[in-house]
Design goal:
The chain has 310 residues and is α/β, with parallel strands linked by helices. Helix content is 45%, strand content 11%. α4 (149-162) links the parallel β6 (143-146) and β7. It binds zinc ion (2 copies). InterPro entries: KDZ.
Length: 310
Amino acid sequence: MACQYECQKMTCEEPFSCPASTPKMLAVSVDGNRKQYRFRQSQRIDEPLFKGPFIMEDSAVTDFVDKVRTNVKCTPGKGTCGTSQWSADRETARRASRLDEEGLEMAVCRHGVLLKALNMFRGEIFAYLLFLETQFQATNVHFYCKDIACKYWPYLEKVAKTMPELRPLLSMQPFLLVMHAEAHSTKCEIVWSGRNLEGAGSTAGEEVEMVNSFLSRCAITTKYMTKSAHNDMLTVHAMGWNRRKQENLHVVLAKRYVKVIGHTIAMLEGETQKMKDTCEELGCPEDKVQQWTTHQATISLSRCPLSSYF
Ligand SMILES: [Zn+2]
Ligand SMILES: [Zn+2]
């Protein structure tokens, strides 16, 4: 498999990129998988076959995390929003003593293709998210999707003040995963949920959960492996997942297109009928009713206490 990867590299094939999201990527969804831990029991150290095509090298991640920590003071506290507590929100998380890697933080595109990952050693800290975000700086990503975007974005703004090289990351738009948003506070859901973002279309941001459920099954054996075998096995599985995704991409995209067009036509027909009924009821021409509706919507929005966020 490693030889196959080297051959793919020579022919410029990219196993960890999505053809539908190249060169412009609409959304990247990031989440941690805590089931991908590995026990400390195996002390054997050998070189992995794959060095960084999928799982980033630990030394690069650690250097970055240390640099962020020297520049920005950690703010301890519980990650709460609404009535939920979020594990991805602890900047000062401690290491578990029996484990080496505590899990895997992964980034996937909106078509479910695996792009990058890193080993977590301190739970899901914001610095890991930041490191993954820096990996997409050159790929024109528009939305950066996270289940705790409401907490992560202020953190990024704070870090960008002291580390100017990270300021370009602010051009990505934060996107709160659509289904996770329902567990946040109402204000949070209105301001950050991907459902309310212009240009997001039907992106849910939850694609990473689909990959998580696949990779979690590998953890049954990988948790007992050596560091290098753990790295290689997960990379091989990720390559297999991506290959299947890329082979079926044309079918999935065609199905999605037909579904979206059908949904849009049904919605348009419904709205047109509603407008006709209103015009008949009021005995007014259509353009007049449309003018009233737009005017009313503008007034309602200007009176809304959350309007400053739009
Ligand atoms: Zn894609
Ligand atoms: Zn929130």
